[in-house]
Amino acid sequence: MSTQATPLRKHERWLLGILVGPSALYLLVLFVIPLLIVLVYSFLTRGTYGQIVWEFTLQNYVRVFDPLYLGILWYSILMAGLNTLLCLLLSYPFAYHLARVGNARTRNVLLTLVMIPFWTNFLIRTYAWRVILGTDGPLNGALMALGVIEEPLSLLFNNGAVIVGLVYGYMPFMVLPLYAAIERIDFSLVEAANDLYANGRAAFLRVVLPLSMPGIVAGSILVFIPSLGTFVTTDLLGGSKTVMIGNLIQSQFLTSRDWPFGSAFSMLLMAAVLGATLFYFRKGGRTL
Amino acid sequence: MTSTSTSTSVTSSAHRAVVSAVKSRPRPRSLSERLLTANAWLIFLFFYAPILVLVIFSFNSGRFVSQWEGFSLQWYSRLFQDAAIGLALRNSLIVATVSTVVSTVLATLVAVGMERFSFQGKTAMDSLLYLPIIIPDIAMAVMLILFFVQAGQALGLFGVRFSLGLGTVILAHIAFNVSFVTVTVRARLANFDRSLEEAAHDLYADEWATFRYVTLPLIMPGVLAGALLAFTISLDDFVITFFTSGPGSTTLPLRIYSMVKTGITPELNALSTLLLVASMLLVLASLLLQRKQQ
Q1: pTM of the model as a whole
Q2: Contact pairs from chain A to chain B, CB under 8 Å
Q3: Distance (Å, rounded) from C-alpha A88 to C-alpha A83?
């Protein structure tokens, strides 16, 4: 990146305007102004019929601390955290294997195989689990045919189904950064550790794991952030009790028409996400 | 005497074992390696089984996914006769094409500007370009619906009628696509040899000629990769479209959502299979693009 501090000449300023101007203007109108509108709305009052009353209030933010909404917030963080942990535990040995197996060509083919399901529409990938876990679905069918169960289990519309859907939806976000981090590791360092009488376990904990830490952090952020705001997975696989922040915001806007409260919750979600991102950059992460 | 003979036999057998281990090409794999391989197979099964179930049952003649009742293409023929799906596909393609073209032009310009110049407010512009990628789509959807409602009211004061529809969906998609394409193009520009542009200047090429005949051809693979990414994200988007669309602007994901909500139909399995094939073709196209880039 060029960082010459010389002031721009006149024609360069023109050029800069042509290059950066249109996008800056577009994002100003369709991102900055909308963001300010949400901020303003979050301090307004809801009228009796769901209309906006221009009356300043902090009530929307106070309401967040209602046990009902705190519960939803806590549940969302728990589900997103559990999803991140499961993705990490499942992806680490997988990414390790992908990064160490065969030659570069084989590894590229395997990575593409990871990507293909990921490129399929998210709704369809979620719908597939609705089919599989359904009472008349193939999983129940197989278990009954094997005689494991006699009555079909109700596997859908509960926390378990949501977690399976989340892991399935977001795991590639974990696999790819882990793969990138592990593939970069110089494995002669492991041999050096072995020469110094480190057993396999010690060599892994003291050498491989610390060196792959950037991938672990990047993958965790990439999984945690979108799953915190998820809406589709809980909506299609969860039951009436599985409500996460995304579902709450959606219902404030499209069903109960409490736009100021929905705005306040959106602001909190954005603050949480930006906090997590800043934490990531503080930790020295570079790749997004 | 005996002790020395046993020790030599031990060393020689150890020696032989080492030699044979080195010689035999597929060296005996350790337990942990076997476990890792088995685990990888299981993960791939986890990735592909759900999709394969949909593909298989899209050819089932029966309605249900629990038992196989014979091969049939009836769900595909129903799908092709479904007018709502056709309309949704048309809307999706319009939104994806228009938003991809506009955002790719905007993003290519801003990427060149950001990589070439340092100016006041550059850090702010950098953050502005990253924010739409970072914040959750539900938050972006909320921002945009409030903006469109406010804009509609403001324009209404001047007698301009403005409501949610394909137009607002396209405007919303451009807003997030600009960021994704910019990141892709900037990655290409980061290892760009600036001396080529300087050489063009020395040969009296003006800014436009330099951009058109030197810069653009060199960053073209990045621009195309970005456009492909934007097209895919646009086709895939549900949440932001769900909030910013109006009557008559149903896209394919919105249609899929309502099909899932109203009950599992085998038609949806057929649609999933076709979309899977389409996305595999897109992956293939992007891989060929990458190979060209190298």
Answers
A1: 0.84
A2: 239
A3: 9
Give CA torsion, residues B219, B224, B228, B230, to 10 deg.
50
Nearest CA in chain B to A246: B138
Pick from B119, B128, B143: CB nearest A38: B143
CA Rg, chain B, in Å?
28
* CA angle, residues A91, A96, A101, in degrees to nearest 5: 130
What b/e string do you get for A165-203 counting C-beta neighbours within 10 Å, with b at 16 or more? bbbbbbbbbbbbbbbbbbbebeeeebeebeeeebeeeeb
Chain B residues whose beta carbon lies within 8 Å of the beta carbon of residue A41: 146
Q: Which residues of B touch A3 (CB under 8 A)?
A: 118
Optimal mutation site among A131, A173, A175, A254, interface B, most CBs of chain B within 10 A: A131
Backbone φ and ψ for A137, nearest 5 degrees, come out as -85, 170
The residues pairing with A52 across neighbouring beta strands, listed in sequence order, are A46
Taking alpha carbons only, the member of B219, B238, B250, B236 closest to residue B278 is: B236
Mutate: best of B120, B146, B281, partner A, most A CBs <10 A? B146
Asked if the C-beta of A104 comes within 8 angstroms of chain B's C-beta atoms, the answer is: no
Look-up: residue for tokens 């597939």?
A: A128
pLDDT over 70 for what percent of chain A? Answer: 95
Q: Which residue has the higher pLDDT, B212 or A30?
A: A30
One-letter amino acid for residue A154 of the chain? S
Contact A100, B40 (CB under 8 A): no
Residues in A touching B54 (Cβ below 8 Å):
124, 127-128, 131
Sites in chain B below the pLDDT cut of 50: 1-8, 24-25
ipTM exceeding the 0.95 mark:
no
- Nearest chain A residue to B110, by CA: A20
CA distance A268 to A160: 26
Evaluate if residue A271 carries a pLDDT over 80: yes
Nearest CA in chain A to B255: A123
| Predicted confidence (pLDDT) per residue in A117-163, tens digit | 877 888 999 999 988 998 888 888 888 888 888 888 888 888 999 99
CB contact under 8 A, B256 and A249: no
